[in-house]
Amino acid sequence: MNDPLSRLSAIYGIEESYISATGEHRVIPDAIKISLLEAMGVDAAHGLDLDHEQHPSSSGSPQHGGECYVPDWLRDGRIWGVSTQLYAISSRRNQGIGDFVDLANLAELAAGRGADFVGVNPLHALFWDDPNRCSPYFPSTRQFINPLYIAIDVLPLGAEILAGEDQRVKSVRESRTVDYATVAGLKHHALREIFFRSSARDDFEFRSFCEDRGQPLENFARFETLSALMVGRGLQSGWLKWPPEFQDVHSSAVFELMRDYQDDVLWHKWLQWTAHTQLAEAQRCALAAGMRVGLYLDLAVGVAPDGAATWGDPALVTAKARIGCPPDEFNVLGQDWGLAPIIPSALEERAMGPFEEVIAASACYAGAVRIDHAMALERLYWIPEGSDARGGGYVRYPCEEMLDVVARVSEKFNTIIIGEDLGTVPAAFRDRMWERQIHSYRVFYFERDEAGQYFDPRNYPQLALACIGTHDLPTLGGWWSGTDIETRRKLGLIAEGYIEAELTARQDHRRQLLALLARNGFAHAIDHASASELADEVVCDLHACIAKAPSRLFVVQLEDIAGARDQINLPGTHKEYPNWRSKLPMTLEELFDFPLAARTLDAVAGVRPRQP
Fold first, then answer.
1. Model confidence at 53: pLDDT above 60
2. N or C: which terminal CB in the chain sees fewer CB atoms within 10 Å?
3. Cα dihedral angle (179, 185, 186, 192), rounded to 10 degrees?
4. What DSSP string runs through 367-379?
5. What backbone phi and psi angles, to 5 degrees, belong to 321?
């Protein structure tokens, strides 16, 4: 590392090389280093003389430490909960999409079965006037909430306004998938009616909320107002394609235009206040029902490059790179997630303040928070402008400082932290997680040895959350039947010559699953592996088996016990697959009496009874 480019790259956290998921040592080419430096705003061509280069300064060696919050009763205890996608909840009263009242009701029902927490997808604000941008992991901002989850029928005037929309509400409620465009149109109209026909703007608590949230809320509300105006002009909802005079949050053009739309700005603030109060009420209901943790929320790894977060604070991020991951045996071209990365030096210059605000925005409502792609606390794979995912490199972040923030926020709000540590995990990163009491994320499908045998769950770590699957994997029923393989075949994601091999491997994995159950005292004949349909007793016993793990937390995915077949999200697809749209196959009111669900929840509660 004696050449000037390598020294400059090191100063800005660009790694010289990395070990891939397949164990291959990959060196980052100089051209990629230069592109990454330029994405950070560093003039690499004229900055190779380090005596003159302006770079992040170090303030010595500050003391780091501090553990994340773990309640005393959990340190040697074990609990369980349920999880689902909030939008996927069907109920007899919602408006075609799961909402915060559904969340409160789900928590109460699950608490009655012995669950201590209920987990959902990220609830971050997306693009209000572009509802088909519906991925919860591609938010406009992580500081504010998606207003589509507001329950209208419990608001003043809500029931009256919805009464005139009976047929439209009935249609979207009965749809098997979320019709985001229709639901958004219905909710936009109803929520505007409620706001402009009521005295909500004069509510003291609303005014206090606006004052407390300050300039970030003002900027967000202005973005939402501008986004609606631009969409109305036939432009995109994201700011990168707006006229130049509106791309700057501080421009006189924005200021002048907003003077004419003050009511709209106030309405968007009111939407945030309403979402805030309903989400906080869901947590209150969960705890009142007997849950000891309550809401388990999810924090996305980044934000869309054209959303409210980057418009309101463009100096914090770069639009000249995207977050992704390098090639591996499952994705030979790598993955480009399209998210805008935070510039590490900008974060350090602001003493981690923006990161703390993001963590706190979720932790303040929750008893537990899952950090998606937790390795981002140490490094992220950046893909520079003009390259695909094969032409990227890892950029290091101020790990100890970020861990300090996570611990501090966790203690402030009494929030348990889970770090999603799947994929390529840096050496010693899990040791850092253990030191800070961040729970690992252990997924049954991935817990296998080199020979492909499933690990005995009794050997899972204590400092972990254990589960069967995730939103990016097939449901249990879909996995057993090979529905996911057939779906990928139809979409051309598997070459015809590999389909038979995948089906053969799946049958072998089914045998291994049954063998695992047999080793743990659940009697299932290995030859049942050839059955085309997954037996209810296998679903029930697998959950009970994994629940035996010493891991502090275990979560039951509702899709698995409701008999769902469709995968929630199919990585590598866009419009060709209905990602983030499938609903649970039955209503919330029916779910907990569904035989498979009732039997499985009772079995898990028997393995992990709630302790007084």
1. no
2. C
3. 150
4. SEEEETTGGGGTE
5. -155, 160
